[in-house]
Design brief:
With about 500 residues, the protein is of the alpha/beta class. The protein contains 15 helices and 19 strands. Helix content is about 35%, strand content about 20%.
């Protein structure tokens, strides 16, 4: 996607579509008023007939300008109330514009309201990259992907230096998010632990990252018994992935980003119902998000050393599958009583989190599609965050707000700890049905020691079974933008 600064009057610019801003409660004003005058009141008529009032993320399209202005069509996008308008509204405007115009428009121009202040263009461009996404890899024939290739922005308040900086950042974040979407959308017959590791190696080669991949023998030698137990029922080999980004200068901090990489989850011997199993190719969304973050870091160049860690395997029902009542000795030496083989994500994460502690990370953040309980509590669009350090949790929440991803804090309620106390081991891998997202996080807490740690349960927003206003059907790439903003803020 090419971004350029337009020098012409908006009424004269030759383009497939002109996108104009509307603010809630302000009617026909600003750029909208001037263009409407040139169009003989057509926009006003359309807006009134559609009862459109500039609500954030809503839009109306005038299908033809009849040659009265340079643009062939006009899209009016709502930015909400002008006094509180910020990056979230502009990102949504970019997504909506791309979704409305990607099939019909190779070039689009935006009115001056979209580029007036620093940060506006980044948010808008991010939205354009996100809104242009489609996954058509396995469809035959020409499926007519996005045509959008050129974006013209008003020169009002914008210069070439700011344009390059903001669109460059948006491109990196948008492409990293869309990579995650691709990985999550891949069928599980193709997206195996081996393939995930190959993707990690490719990202490392491209960005100059250090990459270590542990196969079955190394996993056994190191005593990663959690991964070994979960993978035992599958004929696919497990992989433990360790990517490292090193800044050019001495790092100001070292952090670890950990992802759950279950490339398919049948539930194991505690097998899932058929309907619940159908979307379990997405159970590696946390791992995919780690790869998306690591892809972006060499371009963004933060002053922070970042370890990207992924524990990846399948959870299947083969003759060697691990069983309820088994006891597993995790990488840090703690023992786990298996209550439910479908609570496998926390078991593999026990090894990854323990490994992160050995790397002497100052902070650890894990991302995992961990519990249905988090979906019950927070719905399909909001992730839960829990942790042992309020300052770190606060950083994650602040970054999520800036990134436009919805995350809500849940408490680590001490009264629930008894639910995962075991009679035969140090800890159980599942408690009662009550507070399941919290007890899952409390389980993970046993493997981070004293290191500040935050756990993001993205089971709800990582995958969408239907297309939303601001997200595609399938993998959403949730978590990438939040973690990137978190790292850039360190």
């Amino acid at each position: 996607m090419k971004f350029i600064i337009g020098k012409e009057d908006e009424r004269k610019v030759k383009t497939d579509a002109l996108v104009l801003a509307a603010f809630k409660g302000e009617g026909i004003s600003g750029d909208l008023k001037d263009i409407d005058k040139s169009l003989g009141g057509e926009l006003k008529t359309l807006i009134e007939s559609e009862k459109f009032d500039g609500e954030t993320g809503k839009a109306v399209l005038l299908g033809s300008t009849f040659g009265r202005i340079g643009a062939r069509r006009v899209l009016v996008v709502g930015l909400g109330e002008k006094r509180v308008m910020g990056s979230a509204a502009l990102r949504k405007a970019g997504i909506v514009s791309a979704k409305k115009l990607r099939k019909s428009s190779g070039a689009i121009a935006f009115g001056s309201e979209f580029s007036k202040k620093p940060g506006y263009v980044r948010a808008l461009a991010e939205g354009l990259y996100l809104g242009s996404y489609e996954f058509n890899k396995y469809k035959s024939g020409d499926n007519g992907g996005s045509r959008l290739s050129e974006v013209i922005l008003s020169s009002d308040g914008l210069n070439e230096k700011r344009l390059a900086a903001e669109t460059g950042l948006a491109k990196t974040i948008g492409e990293s998010t869309n990579l995650v979407r691709d990985l999550v959308n891949e069928p599980p017959v193709y997206m195996t632990p081996t393939k995930l590791a190959e993707t990690a190696e490719s990202i490392a080669d491209e960005g100059g990252l250090k990459c270590e991949i542990f196969g079955p023998d190394e996993i056994e030698r190191r005593g990663m018994r959690g991964i070994q137990a979960v993978t035992a029922g599958s004929d696919q080999e497990p992989r433990f992935i360790h990517l490292t980004y090193e800044p050019a200068k001495r790092p100001s901090k070292t952090v670890a980003i950990v992802g759950k990489g279950i490339t398919f989850d049948s539930g194991g011997l505690c097998i899932k119902p058929a309907d619940s199993m159908r979307t379990m190719k997405m159970d590696m969304a946390g791992a995919a998000a780690v790869l998306g973050v690591m892809k972006a870091l060499p371009v963004l160049k933060p002053r922070v050393r970042v370890h990207g860690l992924i524990a990846s395997c399948e959870n299947m029902t083969g003759p060697k599958a691990y069983k309820p009542d088994d006891v597993i000795k995790a990488y840090n030496g703690k023992t786990i009583e298996v209550i439910n083989t479908d609570a496998e994500g926390r078991v593999v994460l026990s090894d990854a989190l323990s490994y992160a502690v050995e790397l002497k990370a100052a902070e650890i953040v894990d991302m995992a599609t961990l519990t249905g309980a988090c979906i019950v509590g927070l719905g399909l669009y909001t992730a839960g965050v829990m942790g042992n350090d309020p300052r770190l949790v606060g950083k994650i929440l602040k970054a999520a707000g800036e990134a436009g991803e919805k995350i809500w804090e849940l408490p680590l309620d001490d009264e629930l700890r008894a639910d995962i106390k075991s009679d035969v081991a140090d800890i159980k891998n599942a408690g009662s049905r009550w507070g399941g997202a919290i007890t899952a996080a409390m389980f993970l807490e046993n493997f981070v020691g004293e290191t500040p740690w935050a756990h993001i349960d993205l089971a709800g927003p990582a995958y969408a079974e239907r297309e939303g206003e601001f997200s595609p059907k399938g993998g959403t790439g949730f978590g990438v933008r939040t973690i990137i903003d978190y790292i850039l803020g360190l």
